[in-house]
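User: I've been trying to design a sequence by hand for this structure and keep getting stuck. Would you show me what you'd pick, starting by listing the structure so we're on the same page?

Assistant: Good idea, let's start from the same input. This is the structure you sent:
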């Protein structure tokens, strides 16, 4: 299964409900797992590390565990996608530091209104956009940046 990206150009099907309240969803329904991708997301975005399903250690807290609700919205959004790949999450509140980690996610669904970032990371990805498969994030971004998002591909 790949990460499916929907946008203003390739809207999600009517039966796909896009979750925009990522903080609320995460705080109530998403637990931390300590897996490798989650660890990368935690450390990169929040300079944090896993403690338990409900807590993490931050750079500032040292060995004092903090409740998972204290994580940033961007971290929560990506962890929602990881934990609930059948649902679609809106990434509109995510900054470039979060969006650059999208290639780490290999299954799930996101709504990215206008996919655009200046990306310099690892190009490997597993993305479906507009019915086309991408295994190179630069190719995906080129499609967006060059306006090759033909509506006929839906």
């Amino acid at each position: 299964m790949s990460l499916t990206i929907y946008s203003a150009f390739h809207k999600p099907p009517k039966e796909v409900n896009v979750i925009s309240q990522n903080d609320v969803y995460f705080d109530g329904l998403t637990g931390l797992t300590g897996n490798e991708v989650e660890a990368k997301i935690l450390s990169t975005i929040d300079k944090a590390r896993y403690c338990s399903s409900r807590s993490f250690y931050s750079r500032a807290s040292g060995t004092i565990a903090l409740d998972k609700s204290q994580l940033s919205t961007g971290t929560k959004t990506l962890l929602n996608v990881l934990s609930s790949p059948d649902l679609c999450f809106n990434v509109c509140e995510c900054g470039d530091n979060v969006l650059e980690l999208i290639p780490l996610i290999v299954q799930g669904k996101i709504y990215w209104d206008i996919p655009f970032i200046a990306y310099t990371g690892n190009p490997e990805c597993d993305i479906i956009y507009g019915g086309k498969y991408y295994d190179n994030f630069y190719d995906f971004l080129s499609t967006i940046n060059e306006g090759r998002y033909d509506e006929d591909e839906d």
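That's my pick for every position. To get oriented when you compare it with your attempt: The helical segments are 22-29, 36-46, 73-83, 96-99, 137-145. The longest strand covers residues 124-129.
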